[in-house]
Automatic annotation (TrEMBL), chains A, B, C, D:
The protein's enzyme class: oxidoreductase
Family as reported in the entry's similarity comment: Belongs to the Gfo/Idh/MocA family.
EC number: 1.1.1.18
Name listed for the protein in its UniProt record: Inositol 2-dehydrogenase
Recorded name of the encoding gene: iolG
Organism, scientific name: Labedella populi
Length: 336, 336, 336, 336
């Protein structure tokens, strides 16, 4: 019944799972009913803080009859099977990105998703950031005319461990994928991908044949061009900027300040403290909004939750970027 | 016992009382035990949302034996009696500013406060704003050298109703008092006050012989000068800025943006959305921090809660400003 | 004949005289015909660079028959006599501020100036700064509604030598006078002056009973209030800001950057190089515009050159500020 | 003799030729001796203002024996022959970019340039912009560590006439070429070029098979990546920004403001007037500095004037970008 809080099963209690648990506890429309992690101590710690029955077995969550939806925040390799299980159980799922690193596995699941009617949403949290969402809405309202160039800067504060890089699927599938979805948030119909990657500072990337620095260029069917600049490190803190250029002007999203204070001295004027450190701070509001929007999707209300197809499209673009960067060609894509 | 949440009695459930009720509910160190308002429906609405026993009689709160502290958010005229009752009951109190509009009543209570040993704190919330507190700490750390000039801009979004003006005690006691305390947050020992007031736009102020625009200048015993600029209205939203000038530089607090987005067009570049609307948004963090600091005071831990004497000093300065603006003289003050 | 370049006699070849000489050389509407300084080597150096006949005797300039106007940039004590001499010779004069440190001497000259019909202009260069002039024009056009508060920050990079302070007439007549004129540029009819001064860092000011830090508050007949903040030093460079507040918004003039470059690092973001050093850089455009406007005055064209009366009004306000700061009273003034 | 002003022959008196003529007149180290344009009225207008002997025949300039250097500001198609003539006459030349639209013609001249010893410089004026030059110097000094990503935004205010597009050589050779040189100013050894172009708004570009919007990505031998964003139009005025990213931080060049004034209202805060309109305003200082540096080159002093080889390298990169955008491949280049 839709006016009761939605009972959630949380699968995966790592850093991002904990964020979602806190959101569920804070949102009067949601409760945390089950908490699952093969590392059961992690699940227990979350349940102690935010409530819920603990298990190390995801199938127990689906079988419990006590969850209205699941949030899948487990390792990427488990996503496809968990989504399949959710569909089997008829339970809507919000799954963290990416669906999988292998497009073949994603495509294999696609018909099931399409035919099932079970709501499956993807965790592209940045779509729910108030600043990005506002720029998109203002662009859509024609404030700068037809979008001609979209520029996204996205740099993490520090490179992940080499062991993470080894299984990450590479910078495009692991990191750029968020920006590729952001590109599609503004321009869904991307038709061409070109990418260039370099390895200039990170031993982990070098060891595993990955890039630590990448620039990706996309063309939309409208002719608009998207530029994405990525780096695995950033001295200034989490660097998350966006700029939409059109015939009537430019809308920009600046980095998020941590203070209203600036200092001017004989050597530097108007200097401000560094930006927010990383995604948990920068996108705190976005995670909460993402959850609210998924609740609307589950309840059959109008919702802008990113879909399984959005997740698949982002992976297709990441694959194309990887190929472009490796083979030095531009890659035509068909997302339809 | 100090590790239990502090049980609060909230007296007064208007706008600011509701803010404190929400803070108490959100802070694991506090609970809302009793809620009091002569307008008992207001108290009940707060209790329904955040818990607590409802009453329309403050003496019931003090007699309940169920509160470890009270928060006084009732009309100004009731503050002195309620503080006296709290002291009588041996219950620490956090009282909204100002203590009273009549310094004689404040002075009459002073010996009782001093001799009682019951912690009495004043609700000068802005001291707890992260930006102002950071500038003060950086000034204290010598980052700009000895403070020579402090400039405070403080303008409300819109003039209050004429009926409010009638009983407000005038702009200096009602509005500037916050800025006078902010001045003392940086420079406690103010020795001279000069003020100029004008009535340029507000019919309510004109009707009741009040000013709608005022500039107050203070001198500290160190020789440092403070400038305070007030207006009862502000088209750009709540205008709350501060600038500390010293021999080595300037620390500035900017207005709080509501968005990271800016727009550049053919007519205006780098334009941003308006600032936060008013104090509930601008000082949300400060109210929570103020409560935490008062809890520390009640628990006998080191605390920076503003004291009854701080409240008295601000009122003395407001009285001096009022006299200066009316009599066109600078007024020497002794806060000691 | 008005289409020929105006032939100037320059009296005084110190720092500011040299600025004017360069302006005259660069402006096709003016030429430097005579250069006068009792320190004749100074005059010769200027003439070598920009042309003109050299003399150490101002009366030779007036008697030469070769100048259409004089620019008086000699020490303040000589201004009244030189203006009188210019009027006697029927030669228009642009005189640096202040007219004199003694209002009695200014008043004594006033009837002569008024009856003579010889154009006498005062060198309040800041009126010609594009930023200040733009704000004034936009205020006059109603962009922010009726002006309610004008805030001027004016700080020199470093205190002058003690010997200069000794003969300067004090901070109000020497330094604030520029800001007092700026106040009158926006609000000509000032009716009340209140000032507070402190001596917090400068031994020279202390030695000569002057202030190094001052805040001046003015009231206009409209009720609008003006705040002026002065300091004899400024670590960040020449600090020259202005802010006009009205019911519809705020117009601000920022300090002048020296570069388009900013640096963001792990400790400071968006830090920029210091501001322009002092008035020669900051007001370079203003000096040239001031000269052009005076040429228009001399030629009988519509001109906004500040008048002898403007110079007198600024001195009256400075005197009132000095008295207010010393006697701790607000001072009513009548500029009419 | 090097202490005399350098006597210049100016060939071409269009918009950019006039800028150089004014620079020559203003710089005490240079004089304008000859002015040449087949449209002799243009040459005469320049000579009337800034001096010099007028001719419609460039060979007369070289034969005059009265010029120490030439500045070639004639149409692109004439550059190669004029440089050849200058070398033949043993007269140093500063030639506007590009050398030619056909790399074969440039390469044919290369051996002559190399063996002649006659100083030939290219007019990449942006290298002399104080902001860009400052960032480059600070990067070179290690302020942000090794450069990892350089981002250049370069947009003209409005598309040129279709007739200009027809003979321009395309956006990469005509417009991007400046940015390609800027990339090489920071990272001379570019090894790979990838570009994407679109035609989204300009009928002239569409008519002539050109792009109006382009994104170019370069890789340097160090692995650093460069992103260039171009558009043939820009509502906000001339959009010229640069951002250098390294492991220790970011150096940014902002657009050039036209005023120190900002306006805050109920709908937009901190809005500023539009940026400088186009290159004549934005790069006024750069043109003068470019000329001074060329004088140093001619006099055999240490000079940073861009060379013929720099001009050739930029054209090679533009050709590679054109090919990349057309054939959808990344293009390896060898500039050595």
């Amino acid at each position: 019944m839709t006016t009761q809080p939605l009972r959630f099963g949380l699968i995966g209690t790592g850093r991002i799972g904990q964020v979602h648990a806190a959101s569920m506890a804070a949102d009067p429309d949601t409760t945390l009913a089950w908490v699952c992690d093969p590392f059961v101590e992690g699940a227990r710690a979350v349940a102690d803080r935010f409530g819920g029955t603990v298990t190390d077995d995801a199938s127990a969550v689906f079988a419990s009859g006590e969850v209205d939806a699941v949030l899948i925040a487990s390792p990427t390799a488990t996503h496809v099977d968990l989504i399949a299980a959710a569909i089997e159980a008829g339970i809507p799922a919000l799954c963290e990105k990416p669906i999988d690193l292998d497009i073949a596995r994603v495509d294999a699941l696609l018909p099931t998703v399409r035919s099932s009617g079970v709501p499956i949403a993807l965790g592209f949290n940045r779509r729910f950031d108030p600043a990005f969402a506002s720029v998109r809405a203002r662009v859509a309202a024609g404030e700068i005319g037809d979008l001609e160039h979209l520029s996204i800067v996205s740099r993490d504060p520090a490179a992940p461990p080499a062991a993470y890089i080894a299984v990450s699927g590479g910078i495009f599938r692991d990191m750029t994928i968020h920006d590729l979805d952001m590109a599609r948030f503004f321009l869904p119909d991307i038709v061409e991908v070109s990418a260039m990657g370099s390895t200039v500072f990170d031993p982990g990337a070098r060891q595993h044949g990955d890039f630590d620095t990448a620039v990706t260029t996309l063309r939309a069917s409208s002719g608009a061009i998207v530029s994405i600049s990525n780096s695995r490190h950033s001295a200034i803190g989490y660097d998350q900027r966006l700029e939409a250029f059109g015939p009537r002007g430019i809308l920009q999203v600046a980095n998020a300040p941590t203070s209203l204070v600036s200092l001017s001295t004989a050597t530097v004027v108007e200097g401000r403290p560094p930006y927010q450190d990383f995604f948990l701070e920068r996108y705190a509001e976005a995670y909460a909004a993402e959850l609210r929007e998924f609740v609307r999707l589950v309840r059959g209300e109008p919702s802008t939750s990113p879909t399984f197809e959005d997740g698949r499209a982002a992976l297709l673009l990441a694959d194309a970027a990887q190929r472009s960067a490796t083979e030095h060609v531009a890659v035509a894509v068909e997302l339809g």
